[in-house]
Design a protein that fits this description.
Blueprint (H helix, E strand, L loop, with lengths): L1 H19 L32 E4 L5 E4 L10 H7 L2 E16 L6 E14 H5 L4 E11 L3 H5 L17 E12 L3 E8 L21 H5 L11 E10 L2 E10 L17 E10 L2 E2 L4 E22 L12 E17 L3 E4 L6 E15 L6 E12 L9 E11 L1 H10 L8 E14 L2 E11 L10 E11 L1
Antiparallel strand pairs: 1-2, 3-4, 3-20, 4-5, 5-6, 6-7, 7-8, 8-9, 9-10, 10-12, 11-12, 12-13, 13-15, 14-15, 15-16, 16-17, 17-18, 18-19, 19-20
């Protein structure tokens, strides 16, 4: 109880700090030239930079401007774009140091390089509505959780994981069929299409699809791709999408390969969503509800083949066929203004957005069975800093009671895991086109779900650089 009171006090302090900032976002704000999107286009941790904006020149012609360190690369990017070729060169780095908690004090930095291309097949080959998308990623650096002995359920550096190696993260063909149906086929990541809510924060709890953060042994988020077929049907402000992904554990192998043999099942996610424009200013939002089913076999987290708890007994766990779960995800802009780029349709916002996410997994086979998060995102919090952003989020990741009981029976210490609570606050400073620095602080209660573990305080810096 003492820990929870301390955690609640810290959360209240963050809220108070946010509300006391000059120009509080609870009042409407004027439009900005550009800011963070209300709904990010993909779950990738490192952005490739904004889409080209449109600038009207005094003489009348319209040209594109690119928000990257090197701008339009001396005119090359605009020429390539006009020819149907888009390029992504981006790098992200996440520094973290535990100033409290853990087995020892330490600091690490991890990073990710993204190289990608987007091909407009209409411009290239006259295939109307067709496009190809490919990305290669490289991750490097040591995980602070391991080096400092943090024992947290979720990574404090979301960009770490799945092997520090080169990977084919995307390679798929996309075809628009009529005005309503969109189909993709090739190698894709599950979290880029389902339960995707952006990745502004550094803690993994608030980044990408929560399903992959809870049951990452079969739901693979970025940068792990698998063969898949995804169909998305849109009607006005509603959509329904469904997919079939191969279930292949060899996709986790640390080797650079376009194909991994050995698939032994499928994962089928479905999602329905509503994308309204609310109020007189037409503020955008997205409301999602989804579910999934995985056909692979998995061990029961508590029971043995005889139907009794395994505990410390030398007995095989019960094999379960099929894993499943569901989620609700919401993001809504509530103050400020919203416009669209007249060429790309990209969202340009200024104001406050709120987000909420609830994910529930299969309690028979998942050690972490549910996660609840909520957050606030403020684009352009100060008039003099139109491209800056501020974020605050709070979350709870729960250890499945069945799994915790089984572990308690098997452990001579008898520790019982419960839930991990955390909050993160960051301020994003747009210091140059294509460069964003996000100093942040994370506060984690009951790391690993254990009340006996000391609270963890992380000071971090999430940086992104796009050429």
């Amino acid at each position: 109880m003492k820990k929870m009171n301390h955690f609640a006090g810290s959360v209240c302090a963050v809220i108070a700090t946010t509300l006391m900032l000059p120009g509080a976002a609870w009042a409407d704000a004027p439009a900005a030239d550009a800011a963070s999107p209300v709904v990010a286009p993909s779950a990738e941790p490192v952005s490739g930079g904004r889409e080209p904006a449109v600038t009207s020149l005094p003489d009348g012609p319209v040209r594109k401007t690119y928000d990257g360190i090197l701008g339009d690369w001396g005119g090359l990017r605009e020429k390539l774009d006009d020819a149907g070729v888009g390029l992504t060169v981006a790098y992200g780095n996440e520094f973290a140091a535990n100033v409290a908690g853990g087995a020892r004090k330490d600091a690490t930095a991890v990073g990710q390089l993204v190289l990608g291309t987007d091909l407009d097949m209409d411009k290239i080959a006259g295939i109307h509505g067709g496009s190809f998308h490919g990305k290669i990623t490289y991750r490097h650096g040591p995980n602070l959780g391991d080096k400092a002995g943090l024992e947290t359920l979720q990574l404090v550096q979301e960009v770490w994981g799945r092997g520090q190696t080169w990977r084919v993260t995307e390679a798929y063909y996309q075809q628009q069929i009529g005005a309503s149906l969109d189909v993709k086929i090739g190698r894709m990541t599950m979290g880029s299409d389902f339960e995707q809510m952006g990745c502004e924060f550094q803690n993994l709890s608030f980044c990408g699809a929560a399903v992959g953060n809870l049951v990452g042994d079969y739901w693979y988020n970025w940068p792990i791709s698998q063969w898949a077929l995804v169909a998305n049907y849109k009607h006005k402000s509603w959509y329904v999408k469904a997919a079939v992904f191969e279930a292949n554990r060899h996709s986790l192998d640390n080797n650079f390969a376009f194909n991994h043999g050995g698939a032994d099942g499928v994962t089928v996610p479905v999602e329905a969503g509503w994308t309204p424009r609310l109020g007189s200013r037409g503020l955008p939002g997205v409301y999602k509800i989804g579910a999934w089913y995985n056909s692979q076999r998995a061990d029961d987290v508590l029971l043995g083949v005889d139907g009794q708890p395994v505990g410390a007994r030398d007995i095989d766990p019960m094999a379960r066929r099929g894993r499943y779960g569901g989620y609700i995800a919401i993001r809504q802009q509530i103050t400020g203004s919203y416009t669209k780029d007249p060429l790309t349709g990209a969202m340009v916002t200024r104001g406050v957005s709120v987000q909420f996410n609830l994910t529930q997994t299969d309690r028979r086979t998942a050690r972490t069975d549910n996660q609840l998060t909520a957050g606030l995102l403020w684009s352009a919090p100060f008039a003099a800093r139109p491209h800056d952003e501020l974020g605050w989020a709070i979350g709870r990741t729960n250890v499945n009671g069945r799994a915790a009981y089984g572990e308690q029976l098997a452990s001579p210490i008898g520790r019982h895991a419960d839930a991990e609570y955390l909050t993160e606050f960051y301020y994003g400073v747009h210091i140059y086109p294509g460069v964003m620095l996000k100093p942040n602080i994370q506060y984690i209660v009951n790391p690993g779900g254990y009340h006996t573990n000391k609270d963890v305080v992380i000071l971090g810096m999430k940086s992104s650089f796009a050429l």
